[in-house]
Design brief:
heterodimer, A: 401 residues, alpha/beta, 7-stranded beta/alpha barrel, five-stranded parallel beta sheet, five-stranded mixed beta sheet, 16 helices, 10 strands, B: 402 residues, Rossmann fold, 2 domains, six-stranded parallel beta sheet, globular
């Protein structure tokens, strides 16, 4: 038996609007900006909902209704749920309709899509709990499998997730970690007892997520027929872990690329062959025994050719910004001021640090990444000015830094 | 390829970027095989071996001295020992007469003229020789006047005529190309953009202690220095920088602003800085050359070029080369080729203040900006500009066989 394990990740950050040093101490609404501005969260949420979430959910619901064997998993951050509750309740309902079929499993993560695991264990656990409670409240299920922000992963995280009672954890199927092994099996992380490790098949995943619409790609156009043919011809495999951003459908790959047609035909083509099926992340862990253990002492992520955290923490601006932020954690929590705590948490979202990345920008290629800012320096200035304001607000409460 | 190059100045006897750009361009062209006869309006020694330099002056004149710093008068010393002062327009007319004589004697395939002061001579050279004329625009009158459709009407007339009659117009940036189309209705497809550049050998290595000893000492005490280098004239947008700096000092009293340069706005800027209560924070260093000029860049934590309209703007590149990150106005040509810098609209005083403040209170931002801009800087060279110009020369000198 071979299973496709389709896992989609839904996330939107609260972007910081243009926020100057002269705003610090004067206004505290960093996350508000003019509706037509490049960083307006409401406008972006509505746009992504319209281009991606709504049509994708419609298609997925149709597939769930048509093919009883079709199943998938998804993770959906607290920040995007907050945005949909506020600005697009219909989109939120369309996600709820998916989970109501009983064949869509939600994966655990941090509420704020943060890198807290690497900076503060207490905050990390608090955000995981917040997320679990939000998922229980909105979707009536309790996540059993964990993924950390940007699929960041190492032995320590696996150890933590094992102790915390998760039955599985997701990671990049990165070659230096897998060595000669294939990502198409269930593994066990080193130094753990019960937890299982699912590793992304990045080649197959990226064929859909990145290369699908690329007319210079030798395999273009990619059809569901061709894709399932590749899978059927892969002899040594139990599960194909296709992990990608939800926004692949309709946003990264535009509707005009034919991505929705591909999605439409994928279950029907795959299920044509006997023994082929779909599984959620929990099901595949129940179905197959781990074939080996995988040791990951260094952190991996699903980003860039480096597959590490350098896109978020690679340069001194990013390091200073995140250290400055976590440097305020104790005082922010002590303040007991919910608005202040909430703003601080919104700043922990990894996207803020990603916008400060200079590694592509230095080559003059400013279009190589998604950012609402013209330059990484602008992102950094806005962030640090917001940080100055947090400090100011703590000062007002006579909390010393 | 034999080029009759008409210019107004060359280093070290230059008042600004025009001379530097001409020098570097000719050097790169000659490395690619161009044979250049460069005509200057004054007599001087230049340590240049890659082209012939010819002083254009009337036969009864012994030498022409360039006086002062900017677009000032010229001092004519006649063979009789008599001395005569000639203003810019007079000088331009004399230059035209002198070029006439050179055209008769010299052999060349193409005429390449830089900016309006050489335009009359260029038109005369084209008329006499019938050779193709390339007019290279480093700035238009509206840039220098700091105002669209502004400036001296006589100068505008000369620019307009020269670009109309030229076989090809070269602009130093897209910004300048747009200005030419806007100001003179020259068809856009007659204009090629050839960006200025910089080469590392343009920079003189820094030796010894920084000339701005006081500023260095203040930096040791935690002060941060913002520098502006250039002529103090309306085009450069400096009153806006002073007004932005007022907000910066409100936030960060330990910030100093250094002006290096002189010009017609000198006293206006002095008065404005006093009026804004910034006398203790603003330092005017006047026009400088050599080490004093270079050290202004390296003593600074941030270099600012807030020009109202800057056709290209070489100084930010020099700043990067001497170790300082830059904040430049979006209304500049150089902003088209450097991405790792801060950019601001020249009129946006609040945003200018915000960005300066961010840098002076954050060394990490300063260092990161500089490190990344230096990577871009190191990829720049004049070779590409020379290649583009050769293309233009070839297109206009090779006759199509019918």
């Amino acid at each position: 038996m071979k299973a496709i394990v389709l896992y989609l990740h839904v996330h939107q950050p609260f972007r910081i609007g243009h926020y100057t040093i002269f705003d610090a101490g004067v206004r505290h609404n960093y996350f508000d900006s003019g509706y037509d501005g490049p960083a307006n969260n409401e406008r972006i949420a509505r746009k992504v909902a319209e281009k991606s979430y709504i049509p994708t959910n419609r298609k997925l619901l149709e597939l769930l209704n048509t093919h009883p064997e079709f199943k998938l998993s998804m993770s959906i951050t607290g920040t995007v749920l907050d945005q949909l509750e506020a600005w697009s309740p219909a989109t939120l309902r369309s996600f709820q309709e998916l989970t109501a079929t009983g064949r869509v499993e939600i994966v655990a993560e941090t509420y704020h899509h943060s890198l807290a695991f690497f900076y503060s264990q207490a905050e990390f656990e608090a955000q995981v709990t917040m997320h679990r409670e939000k998922i229980q409240k909105l979707f009536g299920q309790t996540p059993k499998v964990f993924r950390n922000t940007e699929l960041s992963y190492n032995n320590d995280l696996a150890y933590w997730a094992d102790k915390a009672g998760y039955k599985g954890i997701l990671a990049e199927g990165w070659d230096p970690v897998l060595d000669w092994r294939s990502p198409n099996y269930v593994y066990r992380p080193s130094h753990t007892e019960n937890i299982r490790l699912l590793m992304k098949n990045y080649k197959l995943s990226d064929d859909i997520a990145f290369r699908f619409g690329d007319r210079d790609w030798a395999e273009w156009p990619l059809t569901a027929d061709k894709f399932t043919h590749w899978l059927n011809n892969t002899e040594h495999a139990t599960n194909f872990n296709l992990f990608m951003d939800y926004e692949t459908f309709g946003e990264h790959q535009w509707s005009e690329s034919g991505i929705f047609d591909f999605l439409h035909h994928l279950p029907e083509q795959w299920l044509k062959t006997e023994g082929n099926t779909f599984m959620t992340v929990s099901e595949v862990i129940d179905a197959f025994e781990p074939v080996d253990q995988v040791d990951t002492p260094n952190t991996t992520t699903w980003a860039d050719t480096e597959r590490d955290l350098s896109a978020w923490l690679g340069n001194p601006m990013q390091q200073q910004a995140i250290q400055a932020l976590y440097g305020l954690q104790t005082q922010v929590m002590e303040s007991g001021d919910l608005a202040l705590i909430n703003d601080w948490r919104k700043l922990t979202t990894s996207d803020h640090f990603y916008y400060m990345c200079t590694k592509w920008f230095s080559d003059g290629d400013i279009h190589a990444y998604f950012s609402p800012y013209k330059t990484p320096y602008e992102a950094y200035m806005n962030f640090m000015n917001a940080w100055h304001d947090l400090k100011f607000r703590l000062g007002e409460k006579d909390i010393s830094i | 390829m034999k080029v009759l190059m008409l210019g107004w100045e060359l280093p070290p006897h230059n008042s600004g970027g025009l001379g530097v750009a001409c020098y570097q361009l000719c050097k790169a062209l000659s490395e690619k095989g161009a044979d250049i006869e460069f005509v200057l309006p004054y007599t001087a020694d230049h340590d240049i071996d890659f082209m012939r330099i010819n002083a254009a002056h009337p036969q009864d004149v012994e030498s022409v001295m360039k006086a002062g710093i900017a677009y000032d008068s010229f001092k004519y010393i006649k063979k009789t020992g008599e001395i005569e002062w000639v203003d810019l327009f007079g000088q331009s007319a004399i230059y035209e007469k002198a070029v006439e004589r050179i055209v008769e004697l010299a052999e060349f395939d193409v005429i390449h003229a830089h900016d309006w002061l050489t335009c009359r001579a260029a038109l005369r050279a084209k008329e006499l020789s019938g050779k193709p004329l390339i007019v290279h625009i480093h700035s238009v009158e509206a840039d220098r006047a700091g105002k669209e459709h502004g400036g001296n009407p006589v100068v505008r007339e000369i620019e307009s005529l020269a670009m109309l009659i030229a076989d090809r117009v070269i602009a130093v940036s897209e910004h300048t190309k747009r200005a030419i189309v806007r100001e003179y209705d020259i068809p856009a497809d007659k204009i090629d953009v050839v960006h200025n550049s910089i080469s590392e050998d343009m920079l003189v290595p820094n030796h010894g202690a920084n000339a701005y000893k006081y500023l260095e000492a203040m930096r040791q005490q935690g002060y941060r220095v913002v520098a502006s280098v250039g002529r103090l004239t309306i085009q450069k947008g400096l009153p806006n920088l002073l007004r932005a700096f007022e907000h910066v000092v409100d936030r960060n009293p330990k910030t100093l602003l250094l002006f290096v340069g002189s010009g017609d706005q000198y006293y206006e800027l002095l008065e404005l800085s006093a009026e804004l209560g910034l006398s203790k924070n603003v330092v005017f260093a006047d026009f400088q050359r050599g080490k004093n000029y270079r050290d202004a860049y390296s003593v600074a934590d941030l270099f600012v070029m807030p020009s109202v309209s800057e056709p290209f703007g070489l100084t930010p590149l020099e700043a990067i080369g001497y170790g300082t990150p830059t904040l430049i106005s979006k209304q500049s040509g150089v902003s088209e080729i450097i991405t790792n810098c801060l950019k601001v609209d020249y009129w946006d005083i609040n945003e200018m203040a915000n960005q300066i403040t961010a840098v002076v209170q954050n060394d990490v931002l300063r260092d990161e900006l500089h490190a990344n801009s230096l990577k871009e800087y190191k990829k720049l060279s004049w070779g590409k500009a020379a290649d583009q110009l050769f293309d233009v020369y070839n297109r206009h000198t090779q006759k199509v066989i019918a």
